[in-house]
C-alpha cells in the first residue's frame, strides 16, 4: 500500500508529518514523499527542510494521496505539475485527501466541484473560489468520490486515524492512536475561532503578519 505525500516549497510541516506519523505505522504501508524533483524543499517559515524522494513521474499509481497545505499552495491554485499529477492519479487511488489548504490543490484539480470540503478557517473564501462549499467540520468525507479533506494543521492527525480505519479497521486506527499517544489535553481551549476573544485574534493577526 503506497501512500504518497507531495512536498512543495512553503508547505506547512505538520500538515504532512502529522499524517505521516500515523500512516507509516500501518502494516504494509510505504510512505513516499513526492515532488517535481528529488531534493530538499523548505517549509513555510524557511526553518525546516524536507526531502522529496521520488518525482511525480516515479509514483504513477499511489493507493493514497495526502496533500499538505501552507502558503505554498497559492502557487498551485491556477494549475501546476502537482495539480496535473493529482488529476492523473486520482482515478485509481483508494483515497485522495488533503490537510489545511491542501484542499485548494484538490479544488484546482477539479475534485471538489459541488462538494463540501474543509481547510484552515482563515481560507474558506479561497476554498469556495475553488468550487467547494466550505465546512467547519474538522474532517469532511465523501467516500463515494474517495475524497477526504481535513481542516487546519493538527486535524491531519484526526484524518489519518480515520484513514487507518478505512484502510484496515477500527482496531488498527486505535492502535495507531495509542502508538503515537494521541490523547490531547491542551492547557487552553482556544482551538477554534468561536472559542477565542478579540485579544487572542488580534495577537494571532499580529504574529501572522510578521511571518509574511
In short:
The chain is 33% helix and 20% strand.
Topology, pairings included?
Elements: E1 2-6, H1 13-23, E2 30-35, E3 39-42, E4 49-52, E5 54-55, E6 64-67, H2 81-89, E7 95-99, H3 102-108, E8 116-117, H4 124-129, E9 133-134, E10 139-142, E11 147-150, H5 155-167, H6 170-179, H7 198-210
Parallel strand pairs: 1-2, 1-6, 2-5, 6-7, 7-11, 8-9
Antiparallel strand pairs: 3-4, 10-11
Spatial order of the strands forming the largest sheet: 5-2-1-6-7-11-10
Per the CATH scheme, the topology name is Rossmann fold
Mean pLDDT across the residues is 97
Percent range of helical residues: 25-40%
What portion of residues belong to β-strands? Answer: 15-25%
Secondary structure tally, helices: 7
Judged by helices, strands and strand pairing, the structural class is: alpha/beta
